[in-house]
TrEMBL record:
Species in which this protein is naturally found: Sus scrofa
Membrane-related topology note: Multi-pass membrane protein
Name of the protein described by the UniProt record: Olfactory receptor
A Pfam family of this chain: 7tm_4
Phylogenetic lineage: Eukaryota, Metazoa, Chordata, Craniata, Vertebrata
Domain G-protein coupled receptors family 1 profile: 108-359
Length: 379
């Protein structure tokens, strides 16, 4: 008899719930009241259903609170990375060029670090900044590419909740760090061209170390808050991330709460970091251009601009796909998903691959050391 009574209670509550939903209220206040009634009714009958032997499918459909016991509703155990939506049949083959670029990035940046560390003549500000850039490139590519290759090759799409948040932290912290390193390299070129006689006294090893520490600590301090905010938010049952790695905006779309504060802070961090760095880079190169145009000979002007060519190429390779990804997440609703995901992957892979190649080809000291190491000759 008690079971029949409980069945009737559940049925009555569900009928009332259906009627309330069918009303389709138009006021926000009434809508919130209905949602509160439905939520409380779900809690009520789920508590009673635990004492009744009902089929498992009935519980699965009508008792979501029971299915999300503990922290599984607010903090899912894992997320699912889709890889490259739209290229499901080609993902296996797309992974090969990604793997090749990752290998080039790792080998190239380790080679640059080894050459700078073992050659005392390269312990100068420009090469120390280049070593910082190589470190950020290694961390940035290694934090995403192994998992991405596992997703594309072996369909290992599941990533744990905490691992996803850690990956998100490393991506954004070291992206900010790389932007800061590019900004300090622009300052280095400005001092070298506009103040050549004071170069050694201004950019001492201590100053270089402090600049590197500031840009890295800035990234850690700016990025940490929105990672902690995301970690404390409740997530919806849907836990699919439609790309190859955990990025802030992609993870934020899975949150079942008001994310305006987090979105606003993320936008503030992006604009303050990238905006400030681009402003410093732009001002530095305006001053460099003024100085170069004032040089008396054409050869001197070309030589001065040649020292900046590598840095300009690296800046373009880093900021163009990065800015496209940033704006596509927030405003690009009509951007094809496959294009967005591909550029997001290339944003974290192409700069780490190109940086050692560009500086290896354009910088004579590094180029000579590489040729000497490969050929056993002193060119």
């Amino acid at each position: 008899m008690s079971s029949i009574i409980l069945y009737c209670q559940v049925l009555c509550i569900k009928v009332v719930e259906i009627i309330l939903v069918t009303i389709k209220p138009r006021t926000i206040l009434f809508n919130c009241s209905i949602q509160k009634i439905i939520h409380n009714s779900n809690l009520f009958y789920c508590y009673h259903l635990q004492r009744v032997d009902l089929p498992s499918q009935w519980r699965k459909i009508n008792c979501p609170v029971m299915l999300t016991s503990g922290n599984s509703s607010s903090h899912p155990v894992s997320f699912i990375l889709l890889g490259i939506p739209g290229l499901e049949n080609s993902q296996f083959w797309v992974a090969f060029p990604f793997c090749a670029m990752y290998v080039v990035a790792v080998v190239g940046n380790i080679t640059v670090l080894f050459i700078i560390q073992t050659d005392p003549t390269l312990h100068e500000p420009m090469y120390l900044f280049l070593a910082m850039l190589a470190v950020t490139d290694l961390v940035l590519s290694t934090s995403t590419q192994p998992k991405m290759l596992a997703v594309l090759w072996f369909h290992a799409r599941e990533i744990e909740h905490h691992a996803c948040l850690i990956q998100m932290f490393f991506i954004h912290a070291f992206s900010s760090g790389e932007s800061g390193v590019l900004m300090t390299m622009a300052l280095d070129r400005y001092v070298a061209i506009c103040m050549p006689l004071r170069y050694s006294s201004i950019l001492t090893p201590t100053v270089v170390g402090k600049l590197g520490a500031v840009v890295m600590v800035r990234g850690l301090l700016w990025v940490s808050p929105f990672c902690f905010l995301v970690a404390r938010m409740p997530f919806c049952p849907k836990k699919i991330i439609p790309q190859s790695y955990c990025e802030h905006m992609a993870v934020l779309k899975l949150v079942c709460a008001d994310t305006r504060g987090n979105r606003g802070y993320g936008l503030f961090v992006a604009l303050s970091v990238v905006g400030f760095d681009l402003m410093v880079i732009s001002v530095s190169y305006v001053m460099i251009l003024r100085t170069v145009l004032g040089l008396p000979s054409r050869e001197a002007r070309l030589k001065a601009l040649g020292t900046c060519a590598s840095h300009i190429c690296v800046i373009l390779a880093f900021y163009i796909p990065g800015l496209f990804t940033f704006f596509a997440h927030r405003f690009g609703r009509h951007v094809p998903r496959v294009l967005h995901v591909m550029l997001a992957n290339l944003y974290l892979l192409v700069p780490p691959m190109l940086n050692p190649i560009i500086y290896g080809v354009r910088t004579k000291q590094i180029r000579d050391r590489v040729i000497h190491g490969c050929c056993g000759k002193d060119f």
